[in-house]
## 1
Amino acid sequence: MSETSDLQRRLLEHEVLLEMGVELASTLDLARVLSLALQKAEELCHAESSSIWELDDERRELFFRVVRGRAAGEIQSLRVPLGRGIVGSVARSGRAEIVNEVQDDPRWSGDRDSHFTTRNILTVPLIARGSVIGVLQLLNRSGGEGFTADDLRRMQLFAGILAAAVANARLYSDQKRTFLEMVTALSEAIEKRDPYTGGHVRRVVTYSVLLGQEIGLDVEELEELRLAAILHDIGKIAVPDQILQKPARLDAGELQVMERHTVDGAELVGRIRGLRHLVPGIRSHHERLDGKGYPDHLTDEQLAKIPRIIGVADTFDAMTTDRPYRRALTPAAAAEEIARLAGSQFCPVVAAAFGRLYARDAFTLEQGERVLASLSALVPQG
Amino acid sequence: MSETSDLQRRLLEHEVLLEMGVELASTLDLARVLSLALQKAEELCHAESSSIWELDDERRELFFRVVRGRAAGEIQSLRVPLGRGIVGSVARSGRAEIVNEVQDDPRWSGDRDSHFTTRNILTVPLIARGSVIGVLQLLNRSGGEGFTADDLRRMQLFAGILAAAVANARLYSDQKRTFLEMVTALSEAIEKRDPYTGGHVRRVVTYSVLLGQEIGLDVEELEELRLAAILHDIGKIAVPDQILQKPARLDAGELQVMERHTVDGAELVGRIRGLRHLVPGIRSHHERLDGKGYPDHLTDEQLAKIPRIIGVADTFDAMTTDRPYRRALTPAAAAEEIARLAGSQFCPVVAAAFGRLYARDAFTLEQGERVLASLSALVPQG
């Protein structure tokens, strides 16, 4: 190969890497981009399959972040202890390796996916802030030659960019998880002052995202709905014990104090710029389409989507749990009630979504937990 | 220039860009790296001075993120409305520009720094997720020629990497700020149930970081101290109104319930993996070196640094505010009390730090606010 064409090839490679770097750096939500990154890595090194493994520091195990070119389903749940196998040994040593005769390597334990035969492996550690956080692996260079020193150099450059992106996404998602967990813990602690509503917050969150998904909200809207639902009763922090814990129906004056939790909660959250968008879900979850709700007596055209959803979830849970002054309704009776009040108390769209879920036995906490789990999974797993 | 040497030059440039990309992507705390990035940009384009401007979306203004090569102090506080001047017009149009005869450009309003004369300007927008988030600017190409189309191409590549890094750092710091604000708002809402302790949380936070800085904690420790101090009384959420609001000294049984706020708060925070490191600050801020504190009667060698600091801050604030059963001490009397109890109730190191601050009139909320402001400034400003 002439010097010029070699230089040109390397220049092109660099351009791919740079583009990839910009794309990777441009997102803190990696799932989509990482798969594209692997595709580029395969192209650059003519590999048949590739994967990114991530190190779970606490359990000292590696797990797949992304796999390309093999039956991902079968091996997706594989976990490899640090130090075990080729992937584990590169993660421990922090040194890149090429193994071109994999059958001869004592660390090799065979293919898990019976439709794929591994011949050669290139493994590069992902190092961020001085620590191994995972491993990039390419399998089977096409042609008989196996991976080259040139491939290794290329992938080490690539790994630098990948590692930074993965580390940032982790940091971001850890912070996000901590935030959600903290806000949930505090909401639940506030709820615990009310002896009649154990587990209410968690159930309203779960029912809300279930309804939201049925209505067709996108992921961002579901995330917003989840956070608003966690916080919907946060204003109860300002309700005195004697009202919150009264073992009987509240009188008019007490009711007025109790109803202030919508305004107080909205006021608290509204002071925080990054959460201001949650105010309608908190302030208006006790409004009714017919204007007979509180605190603002909003009507149909004034009421946002999120409080409509939380309203149904909240009421269903209130109806199906015992209160000091009345017994719980059965779910069937509550479902009838929601259908009856569609258009007056409840948004007909949300009530209809509830009706569909209920009719197919899908309005359950288990189903809702699944929606919540899918939301968390969008955040790269730490 | 021969084709080969041109290719070689471009290859080297790419390598610089790639390295820079990895470095930029490797941090969510940009201040240090951005200045290095500007240095590289100046080298690549032979510029005398450079800067990164960031767009404040809410105020529709650009402000300096970093400046190199000019009297940074003088111009650091400059803010330019979107659309105004060359920088404002590139930020609005989203199109890169070279202005080689700056005196002839009607948008040019002259140099702010009297020691620097601008001749030519290269301005590239920083675009992340489709929106302009700032501008990269180089001033004065050395030699008489001005900036070239080649410089522009290079800096557009560079701007892609920069923009992604700046956008990520912003997202991260916004999330962090939202978390701190939310936790503070909730702590204050919980505190408001106790009519005798208005503003206590905020003052304990402020005093704590002031003491922490005097003792020589590093930034990470100060951040941890701040968060622990915000949360130190969070367990009071579980204390009944009748005890929290009793307008008299508590009896033994009530005291026992009140003292549980340390355990309850630690339990709540301890359930959250990302906050578990804060547990000692919350659980042990009422311990004493002599073992007579609560809840665990820890002694000197068992007591961590953070609760020692919060303990002094908390007690000073309690002593200097009125309580239902006693009047506030004067600050001078409280200072004497802290000195007297050093070694028995209080850690002598913290008490000595308090003593030094107090003696030079620096144990004030204003001084503490300054420490807090410097902590926030470490997070890139959004």
Note: The two ends of chain B are 45 Å apart (CA to CA).
## 2
Amino acid sequence: MYRAPLSDITFVLDELLGPEALAGCRGLEEYSPELAAGVLEEAARFAEGVLEPLNKTGDREGAHWSESGVRTAAGFKGAYRKFVEGGWPQLGADAEYGGQAVPRMLTTAVQEIWASANLAFKLCPMLTHGAAHALSLSGSKAQKALYLPRMVRGEWTGTMVLTEPHAGSDLGLIRTRAVPEGDHYRLFGQKIFITWGEHDYTDNIIHMVLARIEGSPAGTRGISMFIVPKVLVRADGSLGERNDVRCVSIEHKLGIHASPTCVMAFGEGPGATGYLVGEANRGLEYMFIMMNSARLSVGLEGYAVSERALQQALEWARTRVQGRAAGGSAPATIIHHADVKRMLLGMKSSVQAMRAVSLYAACQLDVAAHHTDAARRAAAQARADLLIPIVKGWCTELGIELASTGIQVHGGMGFIEETGAAQMLRDVRITAIYEGTTGIQANDLLGRKIGRDGGAALAALIAEMRAELERLAAAPPAARAARDAALEGVTLLERSANALVAMHSRAPEQAAAVAVPFLMLCGFVLGGWLMARAAATAARRAGGADGEPYRARLASCGVYAAQLLPRALGLERIVSRGGESVAGTPPELI
Amino acid sequence: MYRAPLSDITFVLDELLGPEALAGCRGLEEYSPELAAGVLEEAARFAEGVLEPLNKTGDREGAHWSESGVRTAAGFKGAYRKFVEGGWPQLGADAEYGGQAVPRMLTTAVQEIWASANLAFKLCPMLTHGAAHALSLSGSKAQKALYLPRMVRGEWTGTMVLTEPHAGSDLGLIRTRAVPEGDHYRLFGQKIFITWGEHDYTDNIIHMVLARIEGSPAGTRGISMFIVPKVLVRADGSLGERNDVRCVSIEHKLGIHASPTCVMAFGEGPGATGYLVGEANRGLEYMFIMMNSARLSVGLEGYAVSERALQQALEWARTRVQGRAAGGSAPATIIHHADVKRMLLGMKSSVQAMRAVSLYAACQLDVAAHHTDAARRAAAQARADLLIPIVKGWCTELGIELASTGIQVHGGMGFIEETGAAQMLRDVRITAIYEGTTGIQANDLLGRKIGRDGGAALAALIAEMRAELERLAAAPPAARAARDAALEGVTLLERSANALVAMHSRAPEQAAAVAVPFLMLCGFVLGGWLMARAAATAARRAGGADGEPYRARLASCGVYAAQLLPRALGLERIVSRGGESVAGTPPELI
């Protein structure tokens, strides 16, 4: 039974980052720890009461396709209605269209709670938010006025329609055609992997579709973005005719069974009516602006599922009696066994580190969007750009590992589906794939986020981490181990980054062959930095009767330093010397 | 479509270990590379033609329980009949009971092929072999004569019946009661997780059951082993009455769906008739003698599934067009992308390393069982005892990771069940749990295999590895990197081992908290040693027209050294310094 980890989340928001992180941000002045606490408590209540009970049943039942559409698993439609009635879709959306402007830092924390309680459910509002975001960035005033208010309120949902059977990571291969007709286009083509592309939640679904206008250049420079509503919307906002777009099947997947993954046919008849968003041939660019934000939201899924896996494993370990505790002869619950403790503490400290890094990245997005000082905005944007592929890649890869560890804690029961631990591994496995695989994230990190500025944004982050960790030499002794380990990690990262920047221009294939290990190194070291900061804070408050949460925090910071951060040693070695073995091997020798 | 990797397997058997590894072994004189090749080719034909086509259908259909028994998935019963007709169960069994004595090294290689082609299928013969092995070690002459010939021929199958709902890793908690009645016992109790405990393959199933004779001491010293046939066997070998043992349900599992995992009720009526094996209260001891061998057989499942995952990922990467190759502008298959190459080469080199270590361990079992020199037998037994928990733990943990990597290579298609990549992750996940979790293996390694002799057997292995690697300084330059990396790994292992032996007596909880990382370190370093040896062999033969397989082997040895072995750096750090953070944290702070 999942319980939202409110004290862990508020520790990061209030004590590790602190509301002062948003100082100077215009439009976020109302944010306060009290406001955040209120929102988080309500989110916890909703997640625990409404979403969590549907997690296992949704997995078992899945979504059902028929000619007339997709029926969601029992209870999901009602839960969505309550979600809308509760005003949750508005949280974090643009106030101009009815949204409630709160920091991304807070919506990221709330989204974690949705994703932990019910990952399949969480995806529909996430995609709606993404579609609305893309429209708000690039749509015309009229388009925004027509679609956004109802998308922001969740009365209509939205999708991102990118992939085709032959065009996944490489969207330049998209073939879906758009034929001009008056003020709109007719679209023809098949799209796959469309998350929540069809369902029974709402009257309408607004698809944001990538397609190629006839005569456009080949490759990525010839792709445009279109609004393709499931049901056409009249100028007065009322629903008109059914559009020529149809879900022709849904996938049979490893996990997230309650989330329909749709094959969508556009233009089986006269062509699907679509409305160009922004300028022709700039669709990919628009999509990528939005995608940065979506990738943060997928990254958090990695630790959200891990948090749930940890809670379930902890519950099992606290009640399952097996063997004797060290030095004792009485039967003991398995939480007393050293290896079980190692697994649980490893999970816990990893989740805490991932959450801290992700909320820090979200905070950078807030500063980038709201700060009154343009230079501060630009610096924060550069940092967010750098962090997001790391959050996406590292948190999801580590999340898969931790969900598997959660199974292991259960022993044989972990392999039995009814236990629920296996579902988490099945669910979380997709997170390292959708919204760009880990390889794609690492390419982005290497090519765009480090290669283009010669590593300047990363060097600035490294310098800041180092300076802060050096100041932490003055922290209480209990925090020293976490600080020393973090500093060693920063040194390893710096060495790797320098090696990689040089390699990227000298031997780009070698650099590409170690881009994922480098991304993982970045993640572990960023986690080490923020865990060291957390340890310093916790050490100051660990004494006395109220100190137990801080003592627990100190313990997990210590475990992170001693059990997780050492991976940086191997990753640094792989980055500095491992590329040639891969790059130098021709494909025919594999 | 799985194809048995015969050239990779014979490279290890013939060139890396070589038939000379069995010199001095009485009873294995007939073994030769030609004999092995013949057996392996036949096994490949059977696996590819009969077992492989049932792998996916068996997963989809699963086994079906009803009051009257368990019906296996379509085709499985026929495949098993052919398996028996082909004489496969006899391979490696005791000649006295109709078996064909071949080295364990060869049966290990053959079992890999079964496990790759169809893991669910492979488990039934494996369990039968295990049950027969336990009986042959500890049964009376009459018991052996009555049961073994038909078990060895596969006409009856066997099971290992250990686990109870409250007694998994801790078998001391077993409650199943055995009440004496004349020359036999009546058993009462419920057992769970009984692999192939019931099925429609054969007329009879011979259960080897752990139970507690009334009045026996509590804990592990009061457990006895019983033969409990599904159908009682008359003295003349004919089948008599149905015994009071019944499969009451089968589990709904993450993977290996075609393998029925049974809840078995003993003694719902008058009590299940059981025959004591060996002496009372020594059941656990008998089981553990057999289990060493079973653990090797489970360990190989880790790389067997990885091999299959690799083959499928390779096929996808060779045909899927996406993006452009580095420096080119034409569309390229994804095998040309650096990160995909990294994943594939990492999988391939890991599989090769795991196979080499496992076959080396199997070879030690052969020497331990067959060598004419008692001292050589004892040394080989000590080494096998040391290696087996490493093979079991390391190969299965790494196998899970690699099956997940196989999904990743497929991108979005990997998450779709029809692709088949996801099944491999679901199937292989159990291997790190059954026959003793990784934590149990690490405990065994630390407590029994290192703690008891103060690390002497491990020190002997380390010295041998070091001496051989030092000799390899004379190997061709192409093999140098693999050798240098392996030597560094041995140094890290030595340092860790010394630290751990000291810690084990000084601070046993700390040692226990790093036992799994230590086990993994052992695995990676052993792999590095044998990959360095392989590189030296391959380097000598890589020139010329026939050299391509050797050049490929050299490349994967290089990748292992540069991309896998560096993990030893982090593991060594965790072992030497990571234990206190876990051991020092009381459970209530988790």
Note: The mean pLDDT of chain B is 96.
## 3
Amino acid sequence: MDWISEDQIMIVGLGLMGGSYARALKRLGFHVSAIDKDPESIEYAEKSGIIDRGYTVPEPEAVGNADALIFALYPGVFREWIREYGNLLKPGARITDVTGVKKCIVYDIQDMLKDDVEFIASHPMAGREVYGVKNSTDKLFTDANYIVVPTEKNTQGAIEWCKGLGRLLGFRKVSVLSPEQHDEMIGFVSQLTHCIAVGLMTCSDNAHLVDYTGDSFRDLTRIARINDAMWSELFMLNREPLLEKMDSFISEMQLLRDMLSSGDTEALREKMRLSTERRALFDK
Amino acid sequence: MDWISEDQIMIVGLGLMGGSYARALKRLGFHVSAIDKDPESIEYAEKSGIIDRGYTVPEPEAVGNADALIFALYPGVFREWIREYGNLLKPGARITDVTGVKKCIVYDIQDMLKDDVEFIASHPMAGREVYGVKNSTDKLFTDANYIVVPTEKNTQGAIEWCKGLGRLLGFRKVSVLSPEQHDEMIGFVSQLTHCIAVGLMTCSDNAHLVDYTGDSFRDLTRIARINDAMWSELFMLNREPLLEKMDSFISEMQLLRDMLSSGDTEALREKMRLSTERRALFDK
């Protein structure tokens, strides 16, 4: 199965991310169905034309009809779904996901699936500080990065299919990482940054500062509006890499603090020059 | 002297900030002159109509003709300028600044000035990661905060005049803080955030992450492109408040780290909920 317009695609979990996938895939001409336990989300998505057909439970016929399924669920819920309904999947179906951690989930899901269904993991590096299908948008992926996360069990065909999905959705750059490399990377660029934003917001009472602050503080704390259920789960599932990144960042802050305390301006300037040089690489 | 269109305004230091003031004041119809030691900046600004008249040295006649002067210099250079040329200022002239630290400079400048000139300090909470008059823009102030920083030496007239300047320039909100309150505040919302951005950029080699990163990392490190000469000077001049803020942030990060390490999900979620609640106040 390659990407052909007759494909029946099912989104499992119709929130911000699932809804954004649905919108982008509908626009491309695919038949898109969705399952979400919240009837309001399904009703809204059907009425708005975000999906062709919606379900609040995994109807065997609907699930068995899908050529491709995209799971946009919390990691634990994703695992339970596969355990309970994996047998409904169509032989030859391909499934992928949007899960923010990989090592703890990808191998398990692959082991649980029957042999005629292939799970190729992926991670769209995109998000917003708002939730739900109503806030979804097919613009979410423009200029964002997409990571395909294969294991040794994956076929080259499925890897290429998943890369194709990233390109179809309009991601700026599609890359491939192992689950271990992915979790290392995500511990730094995503999880550590969320910890920092939260820590900056909670380290002192700052509500009175709103009339004085500039854009720096706003930028550093944009992601401090955080879904506590989802992110605490993601943090716990990637505990070792994240702890390592936090320790390395805390040490660096301590080092900068000591440079300031001892009045070592030249050492501080050297750090600032390194920072400036590295950050230039990240300009879009 | 109130704000009247016949006012002769002089900008001292025609970089990003001085240039942005010049553009905004010219648009409002004031006669704007500028001093900058760099002939290219002056030539560019004259040719582009950003200023009416430019000088590369403090010509006594030009300085003595200005009703109001805005100093957009590094703190140390500002102090030297007043020491050397303060006697050229017109009796009755008002001066203000854009300096990012206050306690260490405001009292000194006020003491150095002759009695017939009043310095009322202010701080426009706006900036960009690019430099020089060529990057200046009168849009810099829209939606930004402006802080007037009086001491006991300031007259109510000068305070009102300076607030008026903030409003004329188009700032969203004009506030008043003492030099000590200002430096406390700035240590947190501006200096600590810059330390964090630098620390995140320098704590590990991350150049290879550019193909994977999402917007979180980009947002948190936008200000990691940093003018090392200026910011190291600002940090050193506000060392005590900044050290206190850094210590409080480092402790909080250590606390979050320990919650993660001990698997205390509920404590982490509580921090995330507090963070979310506080951050909502900062939405524009």
Note: Residues 172 and 276 of chain A are 24 Å apart (CA to CA).
